[in-house]
Amino acid sequence: MDVHEATLDLPGAPAELQARLDGDGAVAWQQPVTIRTYEPAPADRYPMFLSRRVYQGSSGRVYPIPFTDRISTEPVEREWQAVHLENRWLRLMVLPELGGRIHVGFDKTAGYDFFYRNNVIKPALVGLAGPWVSGGVEFNWPQHHRPATFMPVDVEIEEHADGSVTVWCSDHDPFTRMKGMHGVRLHPDRATIELVVRLHNRTSETQTFLWWANVAARVHDDYQSFFPTDVRFVADHARRAITAFPAADRSYYGVDYAARPEAERRIDRYRNIPVPTSYMIVDTQDDFFGGYDHAAEAGFVHVADRRIAPGKKQWTWGDAAFGHAWDDLLTDGDGPYIELMAGVYTDNQPDFSWLMPGETKRFTQQWFPIQRIGVVHQANRDCAVHLDVSGGTASIGVAVAAELRGATVELRSAADGRVLHRWAGDLAPGEPHVATAATQDLPAHAVELEVRCGGAPVIRWRPRPADAATAEPWVATEPPRPADIDSADELYLTGVHLAQYRHPTRSPLPYWHEALARDAGDVRCNLALADHHYRSGAYDAALACVRTGFERLTRRNTNPADGEASYLLGLILRRMGDSAAAYDAFAKAAWDRKWAHAALVELAQLDAAAGRDDEALERARDARRLDVDDTRSRALEIVLLRRLGRPDEAEQLLQQALAEDPLDQLARTLDGRKPGRDARTLVDVALELAAMGERAAAAGLLERAATGAVRPIALYHLAVVLDEMGFAADARSARRAAAEATPDRCFPSGLDDHDALEAALAADPADLRAHALLGMLLYDRGREAEALAHWRATVDGGLDDAVTLRNAAIATFNATGDGDAAFELFARALALAPDDARLWYESDQLLARTGAGVGARLSRLAEHPGAVLARDDLTIEWCDLLTAAGRAGEARAVLQSRRLAPWEGGEGRSLAAWVRANLSLARAALPADPTAALDFADNALEVPRNLGEGRHPLAPTDEIEEVRAEALERLGRRDEAQAARAAARAPRDAAPAAGESTSGLPDYFATSLPELLLFDPPASGA
């Protein structure tokens, strides 16, 4: 079968469920599906330290996730784990191996995919760690896109007493190990997808997060997105630019919409947006938005409480060559799509909210399909209505999410209640009411539409006045430099903003340091720095800061209103091994209601670890009383009840825990069930058990987790537990096994890993593997000099490891600026891995940064053509070097010889290389052969499909047109030459305004290919 004819066939329900489905029930089952798939290459064995990479307006830091930068160009038939949900109106498919995304959302009543169905799995390099697929619904947390979007989640089907079914998907996020869980739920009596979400901070630290449900919708000229009618303005990422909506009234993403005909200014139509564009609403009083396919007369509505779910966004690649190239990269034949994204606890990107230690946030989102009513003007969870009044006639549409028997639809005058239209009958999903009615020349805002059922109102809608004035919303500005800020309060808050929003290029530290330079005792800035140092594992520095702040805080008031300082002090002291002092600090923090729950959990764990079970149980119960959703205190209570000989109480509490969260891996472990598939999550559970004093159980889990990439770090943790149990010899054996384990893709992260590796080095300072792994963790946390010291110890100790040598090379250049020493380390790494294309690419980038000549770089790479052609970035670099050396013909041939794929945000590099090669050939041919010169210049205007990208509509072609004009002039084709020069000098849509960018990111979020960010400027020049 041709790849362009690939179709995704959905299996029918199993026989045992079909009867329930035939009886109008809701069913769910697991059954794999075979999908044509373009497989990603194996993840890179080198850690990616992309501390300054920009991603979706925020930090593109990817460590500790292994990085994937290549996708197969040939598909295979692959079987994917799939979970199917169905009722009489809807058919869904969830893919647990791809982050638990909804891949199919099908309206059976209309025969319409209201979510974009991608019939192939064709990743492109869009995701944080590389692969990302379009289509369906992606659930993005704790940042966008979901870091685990191409990773598996644990899955469980739950059947409820009311006949509904839920597919639960859960994982521990790769960065902070918070637990994210979403349930896709179908009810038997509703045509609604209900998403039930629980976000749990299972850590001891406050964390930040965002949540966006990213819905894809297939688009064409007749597809229209809709927001509530009071949305008059939309904003770019970080609110750096705004425009009117739905008709843009100014330059936005470089497109001068104000200069366009009125019909082409509407950005709710895909056909009118030529460039990649995001827009997010800035305010509304309504709870819905969605999209409508006028050709199919079908679409969908999203509904969620705007007070916690304010985010409503559209994104598109743009309806032009640039966007179409991305469509081709992401699908074989399913065409373009837009994203209609719904944010909870967030209304922009980046826009992060907070989760306290142990806190759980619960919320729901809902989608339901609509048919034949047009775009929606008002909606709630039960009903969506359309009411368009024009020329004395009202067009009425009513679609429902559940059956409404004996419903009435009434249009009346809002002033005197005169009935203009009345209909009575049954409404059901797929059976909307559509009608027209005379309005007796009443203006739209003077009529009201009401739907009732059983005498109760279902929805009521009165159009808003079209001329309602709306003030322009505020627009963000770049923060001043620290020295330019007068207020200590503003210095502190600016630093908080940069940290909370994970700013990729601006550090919060200079703002807090500036405040402390003016007032060394500033409490908030000292605590902010203490938290920063603590999270980096720099406990001594953290302790010094928190004590300075604490001294000021308690100088006159020994009982401050806020317990944060005491809680943070407790965390630091606990990590430093001073449990008694930590206990006192947590006890003081518990005086403050805000910190009481978190502090009580820490106290209970310290008691439990020390064998004070009665006291621990009391603390755990106090904590659970303050927050019943915290799974940590509940699990601790179960363990303690068992220890105290009260198994029946423990069992009752355990079953309650599993009923509330069937994918709580700690509860499953306590119940003797098989834990999840992720070895790293096994380590998480083991460490939770160890913190409760359940060291034998923790040791058993760590032994099971010691497989694959997790093996070395699991064994180092095992050694810590064995030492605590008094088994010193076994601990030494575990550390020897860790040091001898295959380290590929073992990327330690987090404070537990930090402490385990520090413990390993305290036990054996000559443990080279521990040095190498700790260096990775420290480098990721910004402690470059210390990381380099560990890597130098590894290298000097004789560990032949290409990964460590490469890491040391990068750190050497970034920390010291010594290019020669860095290159020597790369040379040693290449001696161990002579065919490693990444090493060749990165070492060549180092040569470029240190001023090496084109000839030297070319001759070096020429000896390894296989490596040159193994990576797109190195291939493009090679071609640019060939062009610069006067060998543009060779560069052009290479660019024509293979398929390339861009990174999102790094587009244009292959096209630029193509243009440079052709222009070089054109200029060289001009004097003697203007015909050939014209051919080359014309080729520069064309974009070969194999380059994997299209020319951005705003990209200048002036240089190409000038060369064309000169060639045409020499050929005597003066009219064409004049036209070419006119094209070169013709006004075009303006460059992006201040605060905008064509990539969809604000100007001070400069984007770049991630590989280039491995080399920062030397520390002395920072």
UniProtKB/TrEMBL annotation:
Instruction: Indicate, by first and last residue, each region the UniProt record lists as having compositional bias (Low complexity).
Output: 979-994
- InterPro entries, alphabetized: DUF5107, TPR-like_helical_dom_sf
Matching entries from Pfam families are given as:
DUF5107 (PF17128)
- The record's region (Disordered) falls at 974-1002
Q: Where is the DUF5107 domain?
A: 62-370
Name this polypeptide is given = Tetratricopeptide (TPR) repeat protein
Naturally occurring in which organism (per UniProt): Agromyces ramosus
